[in-house]
Amino acid sequence: MEQARLKKYAELIAKCGLNVQKGQEVNISCGIDQPEFVAYVVEECYKCGASKVRVDWSYMPVTKINYNYRTLESLSEVTEEEIARFKHRVDKLPCRLWLDSDDPDGLDGTDSEKISKANIARFPIIKPYRDAVENKEQWCIAAVPGKEWAKKIYPQLATNDAVEKLWEDILYCSRVDGDPIAAWKKHNENLAKRCKFLNDYKFDRLEYKSANGTDFTVGLNPVGKFNGGGERTIGQRVYFNPNIPSEEVFTTPVRGIADGKVVATKPLSYQGKLIENFWMKFKDGKVVEVYAEKNQDLLEKMVSMDEGAAYLGECALIAYDSPINNTGILFYNTLFDENASCHLALGRGFNDCIEGYENLSVEECEKLGVNSSMIHVDFMIGSKDMSIIGVTKDGKRVQIFKDGNWVI
Fold first, then answer.
1. Paired strand residues for 251
2. Residue 269 pLDDT > 90, yes or no?
3. Distance of alpha carbon 326 from alpha carbon 381, whole angstroms
4. DSSP one-letter code for 311
């Protein structure tokens, strides 16, 4: 891949994704697939004025070995070193970047139940630190190609060719060619216009229908709002883009109001395994039945991770005629596949989808109906014929999506 294009992508991540401020620390989590590109990102962060950039490398085969050989007790432990890092994160509010290149099947063969139990045991210790930085820090998830991920998408190509092709896809979907900073400014403005349209209606609920079996109603929060594109931190009010790429306009529904069936239209990569051809049924806001042709046991574990895991945390609207979906590629990666068409998310909701969240505590947002959970897992339900109707409190029905795309 051309060095100049990769450097533009690195600049986009540092300036538009994270928007690193002078004197700020940056933490980067990544695999070992693209070390040269990681170096470009580190340099761009320093050019923005970062005081220190820390890179935490990982290698999925080693992660798999750890899961297989460590005991449940060992995996469940939150060490003093981890606690110190959590405290540092609360004190310093560093920018956090994830560069995703994971193999979608990289943890096949691991014990899902052991991993789930370990995560459940760790969560109560980690949660107070996570709550303390909620909406106060800049963060971004972006992607680089890994060999196994590239071969999963392009099995017919030689490995190097598959990686090169996936680089092309990532850069295209991330609007890197031309002037990417200007392109993202315009893109954020367009998403903001859609948010305003939806927020002006103050919808009471959304009704989803599709020929594949989706027939679903979800209640929206009376003090909720739709967001999309860039966000601002509490306090410093720094504008950043948490996802590159992103096509979504989203909100957090009110906990306890969701009924009907939703059918997934793409596989879900969860804990390094693929859940395929699945559906869920909801009653009174909660998942009451699930089915999957592949890894149903993993899906069942996911919705029972904690009390909030079976409730919704997000409803996201994305046109079926989106740049990502128009590639015709199944990415086997949530960052891309969730931005290809409409999706829902189980688990934790977003406090910043509540009006006036800046002046509310995490507990107060939860009392207003924001779901709390240790997980937040997106799954895709958008289809070519999907209809979405917004219904206001006085019963007015407004067509939002028709044939999979925005009507507005």
1. 315
2. no
3. 16
4. B
